[in-house]
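Handover notes (outgoing to incoming on-call)

Open items:
1. NrdI family protein: sequence verified, structure written out, both below. Nothing else pending on this one.
2. Nothing else urgent.
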Amino acid sequence: MDPINVLYISIEGNTRSFMERLMTYANQQHAIDNAHPEIKAREITEQSDFTDEREPFFASVPTYLDGGNGIDSGVKELMTNVLGEYIRYHNNARLCIGVIGSGNRNFNEQYCLTAKRYARQFNAPFIADYELRGTSNDIERIYKILIEQTQAQTN
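NrdI family protein structure tokens:
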């Protein structure tokens, strides 16, 4: 089974930590049963070379806002723009098959706002969310969702 591809951006290390734990969990599941796919996650940073993606991928993005409440007084996104630029590069957006969001539930309506905006912008479903660094339950839940979404794309 082909690996599941995830592109992500991590500002304070929370998303990176989650992706590393998700890859470890997926690789353990794959070692037990080859029917479980591995996860190949790649961090996009300001130093990343933009390339043409060739395989479907999921995007994972935290929410950082600077100004506005993200709802009725506008929004100025902070620091995650390079991932959006990478997805917009050439035809990459057509291969984005889902968006995972993270954030802090204390921010109410702004929780996962960036991921929801990416989903609309790239015409991909908002498939899952987790708070801060996520829990082991989040790892298992999101791995299952990624498998289901991948299978739905191939059927």
